[in-house]
Amino acid sequence: MLYKFGLEAFNGSIIALATNRYDFDASTRKTTAITFERLGLLTGLNQAFQCVGSIIIAPLVRRYPTKNVLSAAILVFGLLSAVLLILDASTGGRIRPADWSKTHHEDDYSYYGNYNTNGMIPIYCFTGIAYGMVELIRRIIPRDIVGGNVEKLRCMDALVHMFYEVAGTCGSLCTALVLIPKLGNNFSFIITPILFTCGSMVWYTISDVGYRPNEPAFDKQPTYVKAVAGGFLLFGESIWTGAKIILSSRKFIWLLPGYSFALYGHRYLENSLAPIIAQRYLGNSAWYQIMVAGSNLGELFGAGFIFLFTRLIKTPIPWLRLDALLLLALWFLPSWYPPAGQVKYAWMIFGILIPISFGWAAGDVSVTAYIQASLARVESETKNVSALGSVMAFLYSTYIVIYAVSSPLLGQYVDRVYHQTGGTEGGGDVHGAILNIAGFQFTILAACILIASFVPRGAFSLNPKMLHGEPLNTEVDIEEHAEPSAGRKLMAHKGEKFRVRV
Q1: How confident is the model over 169-216, as pLDDT tens digits?
Q2: Total Cβ atoms within 10 A of residue 372
């Protein structure tokens, strides 16, 4: 929770800071604003570097306890976040003066440091590496802990998600309502290095759970550079293996739109669409975090519902259909004309995003548990790489590619429409762009997800009891299906065979 709170403060501040800086640069230099093109590039590259983090962590967890790797990763993340604070302060930046809004125009950000805004991009990219390390373990290790029982997986995934989103909601609201107004978004993430350092210390105190370094002995293992190079090769093999598993079977092909497209829609809504609404509709980039808080709260409710009623809805299909239908609520945005500068309209978006993210989170938890349980039963069919790791790598990489390509292109389109309708000086309007990127884009995503929910055998029922006639609520002896993964090796006790039982 320390990590998530600090992460929300960091991400929210950076996106608001980049939005304001690019607009301010265009205003002072009398040039065309390219704000959301660069913001899309910033977030897209950060997502891409998460893949790099997931690759380089594999050799590390073979040599060192996972809790040490996580502790070091989050500490490095904290140091990288501090780099932006140091850069801003060393170039003349300062904490936002208390009476700034009374003595300066609302679009005056001269208290920012005087550095090239594009310099934020590489720093933000490198923070994605640490983020990718945490995400990889968070999404794969639950199966190693509770086995292949889909009901237990849903409960564990939901419980983790609930704690995660409690911290996320609090972090978003604290950033939007307290930190940015008091410190300015150039210093509002000053708590991030502190929280990440605390999180690093907490992770370091976790038990090793019988960890033993892999054989052969350390001095006979390949160098870390070779291990990382091998990791990239294995990652490519994982993508290929995951693509074959997903695209060659009716049992799994629906996961491409059901997981990757749905995840893309959710991330685009939070990281790209919400900042556009906050800046161009409401005139305050910081209020984007209020909207994200609503999304986080919806995710909390969705995960909580799955945790409480895991036996009532046994497959992800009903949740995918609900997610698809709720995305259509975004059609109100093209015809919505709120007056700028009134925070109550940001709270309106807060309320609207709760049910939308409720549907996504419930679907995400259910689909993730389904993937973990289903792939536990086919691990023996793959060599060199894990079936679960391969499928998750393919699905997540598909989302990364879609987001990394579409976000800057759609951002460029929004900037062009804003410029054509008058820009900063002439009262530019982005409603025409919102019609396409919110209305039509999310309708297409909803249609793809909805159609995908009818692909699995047995999915035409309103609430299917199982898919493809395969019961997933039974225990699975994972060792009989595959070689122990890094996570299971960490849980193996000396002299004992690993066996999953709850």
Answers
A1: 898 889 888 888 888 888 999 999 999 999 888 877 866 544 455 444
A2: 28
User: What is the sign, positive or negative, of the torsion defined by CA atoms of 295, 298, 300, 302?
Assistant: negative
Q: Helix (H, G, I), strand (E, B), or coil: what is residue 110?
A: coil
The conformation of residue 423, written as its DSSP 8-state character, comes to T
Q: At residue 434, what is the residue type?
A: I
Report which DSSP code applies to 256: I
Q: Which two tokens stand for residue 272?
A: 């790209």
Burial classification of residue 341, based on how many CB atoms lie within 10 Å of its CB (0-12 exposed, 13-18 middle, 19 or more buried): exposed
CA angle 132, 137, 139 (to 5 degrees): 95
Q: CA 174 to CA 87: how far, in whole Å?
A: 24
Give the pLDDT confidence of 311-363 residue by residue, as tens digits: 788 788 888 999 999 999 999 999 999 998 899 999 999 999 999 999 998 88
Which amino acid, residue 132? G
Question: d(Cα 166, Cα 382) in Å, to the nearest integer?
Answer: 38
Which are the contacts of 278, defined by CB distance < 8 A and separation ≥ 6? 16, 19, 284, 285, 286, 287, 288, 291, 346
Q: Could you count the other beta carbons within 10 Å of the beta carbon of residue 289?
A: 32
- Is the C-alpha dihedral spanning 287, 290, 294, 299 positive or negative? positive
Q: Which of 341, 351, 337, 361 is nearest to 290 (CA)?
A: 351
